[in-house]
Write a structure and sequence with these properties.
single chain; 11 helices; globular; membrane; Amino acid ABC transporter permease
Length: 246
Amino acid sequence: MDQFFDTFLNWQYIWEVFPDLLKTGLLNTLILSVAAAVIGTLLGMVLAVMGLSTKRWLRWPARVYTDIFRGLPAILTILVIGQGVGLLARGLVGNNPYPLGIAALSLIAAAYIGEIFRAGIQSVDKGQLEASRALGMSYSKAMLLVVIPQGVRRVLPALVNQFIALVKDSTLVYFLGFLTSQRELFRIGQDLAANTGNLSPLVAAGVVYLVITVPLTHLVNYIDKRLQTGRKVTAESNEMLAGGTV
């Protein structure tokens, strides 16, 4: 038992690594995750709209993209983008792997977020689109102002879950060889663990990850509960209107 505590809960190493975790690792993890989430959300919405198009030349590229980036292991995508595409983009990013890490995470996130958006949009009753068209809206305007907002609202919990997964996937970018100032949480913990032969720094990094992901998990549950309550109230109101009691 003493050996277990000394290997995983050595407070000397935990306190030693915490300043770097909070000052450097946390900041870089949030930058990687938030930047990839924003770019992935924008690309994902484009993919969702393309995937729902009746035109094959729009629908099929979106499906192929989604199948590829959902089917490949995340680490393989990161290595291909970081080391393969990095050679082609060296004139743009130089030897800095940081933008390439964000790009790789964004492309992965876009494939999943696109499917989330597509499912949300398809869950909206077709009568909403038909009613909007009957009011004189064009197809694109009806989708943009009526259908898509309702679809996004329905998949908010899934989007937050995807962000949690993105935070955890950010650990994989350490394979690209970031500079000391660019290291995320896992890399900082791993470096000290390798230097000391003790796993306590990785446990400390795990604690910081929990500080990020656990509140987000509860936020998902809260949003889902609120959405279910809203749907229940709407359904009851519709029943009352149909029954002529209002």
